[in-house]
Amino acid sequence: MTSARVRPEVVEAARTLLDQMGITAEDLLQAPGSPSQVPTFAEYVPVVLAAVGDGARRTYGNYLHKVVDRWGERRLDEVTPTEIETLMRQLQGEAVQRRNSRGGSSTGEHVIAALRCVYRRAVADRLIADADDPARKVAKPRRPTSQRIALPDERLSELVVAAAGGRDPELDALIVRFHIETACRRGGLLGLRPMDLDVQQCLVMLREKGGTFRWQPVSPTLMTFLLHHVDQRSAAPDQRLVRYRDGRPIGARRYDGLFKRIACDLPWVASQGVSAHWLRHTTLTWVERVYGYGVALAYAGHAESPNDTGTTARYVKATLQEVATALAGLTGEPHPLALSEQEE
Q: Does the keyword Cell inner membrane apply (predicted)?
């Protein structure tokens, strides 16, 4: 019932205004809570970390813990864009300086991305209004141009030989060959399971960042190595495939140790900061030069990416058979899915 103190024409004017603004009565009842209802960083960051995927948790967790250390008792709506930018600069200055460091730009980018993740979820949970999100008002640092390049053939050969010189040459050679053939990211190999092998068609299922997955051709020789590895190191069908001799699955630290050891033998690996991702650059560059952009796009697992050259990528999407043909050219081995010369 309309209150006697409010004239009907005022109520009608208010309804008209709300209709024009696209606001309903339900929206008003469900508006973001009062300041007393807005959680602190110490209360809300664990909620966010529990909700995000494993990859985001690994990427953002360290930075969000630092945010809690500094702002744990502050509410989400108390922090300003200026304070966020100041924190970003402070953490950039505290970043560990390695040979391949680029002025802390990666740290700054991850700090902003982590806080945007927190505030996006806070807006979705109706704890703050979208317009009050301070993290969106702070620009990420400009990402420097990547210094990774495709390795020349002689350098790649040196790296392959050096990789097999450790205490577990079978494991290290498998890691390097897998990355050369598939051009996958580290997560693609670390997440591989025996059940992800299609032995008959020489395909492996790769799961990489962003929850993407795809079938990727491998050579018959690499498939044989993978099956031998499963047999010798007793990986269960639904567990991680690549393992140490004692049966433990490898993690990201294995890559750090592998390339640190290689760098002791090859000074250019140390001076340039070469990592497994350089193998991805090397293979994809070769595929693009020999088989074209569309095949390289699919080989990299970027065929569905919205960031690739806009509309053009829709018309140059390569087939799995074309990717297998490029792999056959790379390894010099026939592949069951490769196109014949008449089909190319």
A: no
| Residue 65 resides in a domain | yes
- Let me know if residue 6 belongs to a domain: yes
Q: Which domain holds residue 21?
A: 1-31
Clarify whether residues 326 and 233 are in a common domain.
Answer: yes
Same-domain pairing of 199 and 65:
no
pLDDT tens digit sequence for 290-318: 999 999 999 998 755 445 555 555 666 88
**Residue range 181-228, pLDDT digits in tens:** 999 999 999 999 999 999 999 999 999 877 788 999 999 999 999 999
Contact between 257 and 264 (Cβ < 8 Å): no
Same-domain status, 26 and 64: no
How many other CB atoms are found less than 10 A from the CB of residue 18? 14
Q: How far apart are CA 173 and CA 328, in angstroms?
A: 19
Residue among 14, 12, 21, 70 at smallest CA distance from 41: 70
Compute the CA torsion angle 241, 247, 248, 254 (nearest 10 deg): -70
**Which DSSP state fits 219?**
-
Domain edge (last residue) among 102, 137, 172: 137
- SS3 state of residue 127: coil
Among 104, 103, 121, 120, CA closest to 63: 104
What is the Cα–Cα distance from 36 to 53, expressed in whole angstroms? 29
Residue 96: CATH number of its domain:
1.10.150.130
Q: How many CB atoms lie within 10 A of CB 207?
A: 16
CA distance 247 to 236: 10
Q: Phi and psi at residue 300, in whole multiples of 5°?
A: -80, -10
| CATH number of the domain to which 180 belongs | 1.10.443.10
| Residue 2 vs residues 6, 7, 19, 29, 276: alpha-carbon distances, Å | 7, 9, 18, 17, 70
User: Phi/psi of residue 255, each to 5°?
Assistant: -65, -45
Same domain, 174 and 274: yes
Going from the C-alpha of 121 to that of each of 224, 295, 344, the distances in angstroms are 46, 37, 49
Answer whether residue 217 is part of any domain: yes
Phi, psi values for residue 40, rounded to 5° = -85, 170
Residue 109 and residue 17 share a domain? no
263 and 286 in a single domain? The answer is yes
